[in-house]
């Protein structure tokens, strides 16, 4: 049995849901997986206690969360000495196009550059529009952005764009690589495409 840590930063909840689905896939393969929010890391948690680590981050207004950056910088050495993966959640990944794919790649490259961490595997997944969780100004900004792109402007409801098959495939692929002891250190982008403006 392999122990996996899934550390994530989630603003409105979608990245947390994805982290939990990854945990379910890993548990289903007979491993022990633990999901932890980087906003509330237990004081007794040690990355070194896990055999493999995944880190997930949402994109919100074009940025990764500062607490995800901090977590990676603080634990980079531990990440780099065991199999590791990074997954990003954004609206750009939900609607692939030349422009959105460029956003996805740009945000990943910026994250790698700022943290100095080059993950063994990278996944990028569609996020969600959580109008019910946004404050007034964020709701209006997101309504304007989506009006020009995906058209989901009814702020009385939320919209989920995550491809759960892609999430499960990513978790399964990473688990298989860890099980085989065959994790390449090349930062390849896995199922799910690449990272946009905001997600959860």
Number of helices: 6
According to DSSP, the number of beta strands is 9
Low-confidence segments: 184-200
Shape: globular
The helix fraction, in percent, is 25-40%
Walk me through this protein's architecture.
Strand 1 (3-9), helix 1 and strand 2 (32-37) form a beta-alpha-beta unit. Strands 1, 2, 3, 4, 5, 6 and 9 form a seven-stranded mixed beta sheet that branches. This protein has a two-stranded antiparallel ribbon with strand order 7-8. It has a single domain, classed as Flavodoxin domain (Rossmann fold, 3-Layer(aba) Sandwich). It contains six helices and nine strands; from the N terminus they run βαβββααβαββαβαβ. It is of the alpha/beta class and 200 residues long. The longest helix is centred in the middle third of the chain and has 18 residues, at 98-115. It is globular, with a radius of gyration of 16 Å.
Topology:
Blueprint: E1 3-9, H1 14-28, E2 32-37, E3 52-60, E4 63-64, H2 66-74, H3 76-80, E5 84-90, H4 98-115, E6 121-126, E7 128-129, H5 136-148, E8 159-160, H6 164-180, E9 188-189
Parallel strand pairs: 1-2, 1-3, 3-5, 5-6, 6-9
Antiparallel strand pairs: 3-4, 7-8
Helix pairs in contact: 1-6
